[in-house]
Every structure is written in structure tokens, then in C-alpha cells.
Amino acid sequence: MLALELQRLYVITSNVPPHRPQPFASAFHRFAMTSMAVSGRRDWRASDLELRTPAPSYTSITLGKFHEREYAPCELFFVIGADAFADVGTWKDYPSILGAAHFAVVSRPGFPVDFLPRRLPLLADRMVHPPMDAVSQIDPSIILIAADTRDVSSSAIRLLCAQGQRLDGLVPAAVQEHIEQHGLYSSMTPGRRAADAGAASQAGRLHGQD
User: What is the pLDDT along the chain (210 residues), one digit of tens a residue?
Assistant: First the structure.
């Protein structure tokens, strides 16, 4: 947030990711963990927006929901890891989706942002580095943010749980307690799909919405 001077950051729980296997935990548990992870972080919010939209969860549809709330594309910054953005060419509504928001692409271990102009040469002229002035923010850009990020992933977390190992220091303490209390990921057998009846409404109640 500091690099982009953002006013608020929404952390969105995906319903059914189109490029990944079925989630192992229900929508309710995943939204609960998201809420715990952002608790205490000023101006960070857990959002169940995608849980209220029929699966699968496409970024273009999610950004469209923000447009419906009268956010202009130049006001939105979609934060994503460099490893995930490298496959943007396979996304629904590509390349028009790149005009729906700024894409703030952050380095991930093994995926520095500097490799993206070579990986995505057709998009290289849209790539910029912060800080950005007011003029450069008028049209949506691909913002490359070189940052030191921890080598932690959801797949690694699930594997450690399946092996019976503790997650000390890898996730917030409240999230670790929730995972252990409910035995999440211990069998690596997918539980209820995120689209199960009632899951979205439960998540909404947890978020203080009806």
C-alpha cells in the first residue's frame, strides 16, 4: 500500500478459482481466515464479493462489480504476484481486462518483476515502476513493484498441514489456531465446494452483512 499510496485494500476470498483445483476448505472457513489475517491492519478489508457471485471467480467480473459501484478503472489497483500475472494471457477477457484497472504486480520468490517485460513483450510498453505521478495514473498501467516477499504459498501451507507440521510464523496466529481447531487440510481431501448452498450467506454474516 505504501508504494501506491492506496486508501484501502480489499482482500477478496475467491469462490472457485478458474485456474486452480477445487478449494480444500469451504467458503466459510476461507473467508473466516481472510478476516483473521487482515484484522488489525489499518485500511485492509476482507471482502466476500466473489462469494456472492456464481462460480467460477473471474477477475474481469470482479472488477466489473467495482465499476458498478462507480469506481473508475484509474481508481482501482489489482494487486497480484508476478508468478500469477505471468499467465495473464490465459485469463478471461484478456487483453481488454487490462483496461479495467491498474495491475500492481509484486515480486515473488523466484519470480522477479524484471522478467515480465521479456515474458510478456507485447505488454512491455504498459509496464511502469512506482512512484507514479497524476498524469501516468490516468490510463490503467501495469505497475511493477520489486519487493522482498516471503516464500510462503497456500499450497505449501496445505502440504505442511497434511504432514502434521505446525505453521508457526507462516500465518497469523489466529489463522493457525483456526486451521488446527477445525482440522483444515489435514487429509488433503477437498471439502465442500465453495459454491455449496449456504456458504456465501454464512460468510456474509461473518462479515457483518445480511
Answer: 567 888 899 999 998 888 777 778 898 999 999 999 999 899 999 999 999 987 789 999 999 999 999 999 999 999 999 999 999 999 999 999 999 999 999 999 999 999 999 999 999 999 999 888 776 678 999 999 999 888 888 889 999 999 999 999 999 999 999 999 999 998 755 444 333 334 443 444 444 443
Nearest to 51 by CA among 70, 69, 65: 65
Report yes or no on 106 lying in a domain: yes
User: How much is the pTM?
Assistant: 0.83
Q: How many CB atoms lie within 10 A of CB 181?
A: 8
CATH number for 30: 3.40.50.620
Is residue 55 in some structural domain?
yes
Distance CA 58, CA 68 (A): 16
The answer as to whether 13 is a domain residue is yes
CB environment 158-177: b (16+ within 10 A), e (fewer) = bebbeeeeebeebbbeebbe
| Bridge partner residues of 103 (DSSP) | 78, 142
